[in-house]
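Subgroup meeting minutes
Present: P.N., E.W., G.H.
Scribe: E.W.

1. P.N. recapped why we're keeping a running log of single-chain structure predictions: easier to compare across weeks, and new members can see raw inputs and outputs side by side.
2. G.H. added today's entry (362 aa).
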Amino acid sequence: MKKNYDIAVFHGDGIGPEIMAPTVSLLRDLAQTSGYQLAFTDCAAGAAHYAETGDALPNASMEAARQSDAILLSAMGLPSVRYPDGTEISPQIDLRKALNLFAGVRPVRIFPGQKTPLNMPEGREVDFVLIRESTEGLFHTQGCGEVTENEARETLLITRETSELLFKFAFDLARTRKETGRSAGRVTCVDKANVFRAFAFFREIFDAEAARHPDLTSDHAYVDATALWFVQKPWDFDVLVTENMFGDILSDLGAGLMGGLGVAPSADIGLNHAVFQPCHGSAPDIAGQGIANPLAMILSGAMMLEWLGLRHDHAVMAADGVRLRTATEAVIAQGAVLTGDLGGSATTTEAATAVATALRES
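Output recorded in log:
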């Protein structure tokens, strides 16, 4: 069992560094208390770095990411800094493609005490995971779509190789959730197979994987109906798996169910690497004011610990990830120390300190 882990840290743009600092501090404290070592390596990247140097993701940073045990990435991009073709700087997408991080994991949880715009029936809880394919789909021609004076084209790509990896990941996750008592073990393929041949192909590969898991339940849903059901009955879902663009849109809807992007963590996972980052953007309008919400970043750090612990059979580290997630959720549920985006008035430091206090009391 490993005791020393190298973590590549991308501090990001805008509020990125402000929410990364308390997250790293919490992770360091957990590691020191539990007896393992997290070595954090700072990696340059992002829109501000591009504006200064003309390079959004230096080779040295990419190599550090490749050599790391996990990658912790804060909010990236600035609306005012763009490539010559008008698109925003997105090193996080470059990392996904370069490291083949095919499974974008977006957990959605609404627990007792958590504020939500939904009218939740009594006794209901929402606890599902949206898995977004993160390397192809409609993002395939990112940065190289065809544009002429009168028309523009982007190409959607779905491959058998990536889809098979994606669906195996989804069913494995559903089995883990079932075995730990979090769900009944159900995987829903979200597509638009009634219109597009590419999604009929996607669904065919899903069904082949589903047949290998007779102990789990599988079904299908069109993406437009899924968006409706996210609002009407999100407690019915367990694991959902979908194409890149559909997942991009649905994951923000899922964050809205939880009360906002400020409490929405994420991971992009491949066979050998994984990136953990908050779902929200860099919010340059509030950067430097000390009022950014660090909770999604902290929850992403918790996901990293759980993933590392399971990957390396390090039960204490995995348990620390659960403890950090539970402590953060307790702060959200109690509602006494929340930042402005969640209806409170706490500073970034106060919110992170509340999580540290909840950790000590757990």
